[in-house]
Design a protein that fits this description.
Blueprint lengths: L10 H19 L2 E6 L4 E4 L1 H7 L10 H6 L6 H14 L2 E9 L5 E12 L5 E10 L1 H33 L3 H15 L4 E8 L2 E8 L3 H7 L2 E2 L5 H8 L3 E3 L2 H7 L10 E9 L2 E10 L7 H38 L10 E8 L9 E8 L5 E8 L4 H19 L4 H15 L5 E8 L5 E7 L5 E3 L5 E3 L4 E2 L12 E4 L5 E5 L1 H4 L6 H14 L5 H9 L12 E8 L8 E7 L6 H15 L4 H21 L4 E7 L3 E8 L19 H8 L2 E7 L2 E9 L1
Parallel strand pairs: 16-19
Antiparallel strand pairs: 1-2, 1-5, 3-4, 4-5, 6-7, 6-11, 7-8, 9-10, 10-11, 12-22, 13-14, 14-15, 15-16, 16-20, 17-18, 17-21, 21-22, 23-24, 24-25, 25-27, 26-27
Length: 677
Amino acid sequence: MESPESAGLPVEHSRDILLGRLELALDASGIGSFDWHLATDELIWDDRLCRLFGVDPDTFGRRIASFYDGLHPADRDRVRSLIEHAIDEVGEYQAEYRVVRPDGETRWVEARGRVFADADGHAERLIGVAADFTDRHRTWQRQQDAARAEWERAALITAVTRALAEALTLKDVTQVLTGTLRNAIGASALGVVLMEADRLRVIDAVGYDPLVVADFDGVTLTDPRPLAEAVRTRAPLFAGDADEFAARWPGAAEVGGSAWAYLPMIAGGRPVGGFAVRWDEPQPFTSDDRTLLVALGGLAAQSFERARLYDAEHELAAGLQRVMLPRRTDGIRGVSTACRYLPSTDGLQVGGDWYDVIALPSGHIGLVVGDVEGHTAHAAAVMGQLRIGVRAYAAEGHRPEEVMARTNRLLVDLETRLLATCCYVTLDPATGDGVVVRAGHPPPLVVRANGGVELVEVAGGLILGVQDAEYRPMPVHIGPGDALVLVTDGLIESPGHTIDAGLRALAELAAAGAGESAEHLADRIVAPVGPAGHRFDDVAVVVARRDLGDESRIDEARHAIARGAQGAIGRSRAFVARTLTKWGFGETVVEQAVLCASELVTNAIRHGEGLVELALIRYPDRVRLVVEDDSPRPPRVVKVPATSTGGRGLDVVARLSVAWGSEARGTGKIVWAEFTK
């Protein structure tokens, strides 16, 4: 194509043609131009640029301030800085910014320009063009949003998968769903149900009305509500808003919320349960959203199945261990004993540590602590066999060193390939004389009533499980008020700390409790490692304190309570009142003890299993109330709202008694409280 000049046209006419073509090109592309005279601050916009900013060319202010006024407030300082930099450098100007039109619409603009200098080289004019690229920016933004959403979905799956992989128990898995997952997807409520026979049991629900949860708990799969339908049909169900919910389930009703999802949990081709999710805002539920939630339901199902197996194995091992540990460790005149057992917080939380207190035929007392290696059901089973062996050999009247030797042969004959350590002490309550035998176990401590602490230097024999091992006895003596402390290595050994350092720390801790009762000293000793602390190993503690002359028990009375029997609480109260009155305690002590007995027996009946036993032990200066049940769960004081009508039982016990505590006993526990005259 020929240029106007080559066609022989006049120069002025050629310039007009070129300008005309430029105008057509700018019109077609929507590009506007500007010319800012710096000295006069006159800003010239063509009609296209005025249309882009949504201003009238006749009323446009023609000043740079008018341009800045049209920018989005968040972009003004940045654009001003770019313009000033271009002027200072007499160079190029380029910027992307948002324009807010008078009607409120926001558009994205891309501008380019150049600063021209006068004859002296000073900046004189800024000339450039600007174009609307809103559509292109929106496309880019959608791509960014999609990429971000994909990344967030991947991060969510990773976080939930990691949390589920670390969850061991049913409670752990449920907490991942109601906590981690619910927060990650922005849901206001999430409830989890599991299959039990042909019914759905609610195991946790966060954000739902308790009455709604209670009404749903235990429904059959034929229930018409959507969560039951999702589990029954094994198909996920979604309702993005209230209208969609009403159209799909006209006979159902949801309290609160604006969007819902009901996800079945399928494992091994069968339904494990499901979970319901609720949002307070309508949800689009795109195909990606649905795929994500369904995938999370599958992960949860697998985790619940694994957790069920873990819980079953843990319960089996823990039950075995509880059965093998002694049920009662008191009742020997002249000596007060207290035992504590805390399982490792790793693995199955069971293991091979054991303890025992044995009333010997000679009238002496036998104290035992031992540790079978490992934290498995096998270790717990071997522990039970060794405990029974020690008890049987001791009851036959064998000397301590012979008891240990026979126990060693028993472990060798069992061919378990497990090793064990043990410390066995016999003590005469009347004289305080005793004998200590060790099989690779930490030595015991003597805590003197005056505050001194002594490590019993005992020649340690070989650990149990070694053929033809021999053991030597070492004498020990404790005076009135002194205490003998036996522990397993879980209390004194941990990563980064040696047993020697642990024994020194134990000695300092025990010295602080010198003169205290056996119960209080035992609590002081285990306080640093439990029950809430992390434990790398099991912990077993036996404290035997020789009573002072005025501490020996004078009398004891017991009352058995059959679970479910009518009037059980009333008969327990009457037993306490009758016994304490007979023993000569005043009206105030009787009332306090009766009220505490009522609370403790009520808790034992409500949370335990089998028989509940109530005991009163009389000392010269006090009486101890003891309630024993078959539940291994320790009691816990909880904070309750002022308007609550329950939950204050242990708080009442703590306020009315001079001291109270609990102790694991075989398959269950005891909870005790003391009252002074």
